[in-house]
């Protein structure tokens, strides 16, 4: 699992990097970005499973970033950290299927629990995607084998008796 921290405040990013026990959360790599453009570049070039982002930033919002993530079909669990208890922000975050909306100041104990739940959901999502992929490949192999052997696996009948 990998995480991406996005905040225009360098000190917030640094505090998150240092005060969260990423290893205990099974997060292998923690990427950082100070704006939406940097975050998009990281997401394009690295697997990211957990996003922790500010909402209000000078060069684009965390909500715009999550909208782009959803449009591009990245499976990322998004946690918003914000100073704004604004209902419109929270409503938009829900519409974009964010995992959590968390108000600053950051309570690291609570944030750790939220990240832990997001990691569990990301793992479940990966497991489901793998099962779908394996089902697809199994069907493909069945069709290939059936065409080679002359068997119809759906009925159990054989063409070459």
Automatic annotation (TrEMBL):
* Domain Response regulatory span(s) in chain numbering: 2-119
In terms of InterPro entries, this protein maps to: CheY-like_superfamily (IPR011006), HptR (IPR051552), Sig_transdc_resp-reg_receiver (IPR001789)
Keyword match Iron-sulfur: no
The record's section on CDD domains has: REC_YesN-like (cd17536)
User: Is Secreted one of the keywords UniProt gives this record?
Assistant: no
Per UniProt, the keywords (alphabetical) are: Cytoplasm, DNA-binding, Phosphoprotein
Q: Provide the positions where the record notes the PTM 4-aspartylphosphate.
A: 54
Source domain of life is: Bacteria
Q: Name one Pfam family in it.
A: Response_reg
UniProt name for this protein? Response regulatory domain-containing protein
Q: Which organism is it from?
A: Paenibacillus cisolokensis
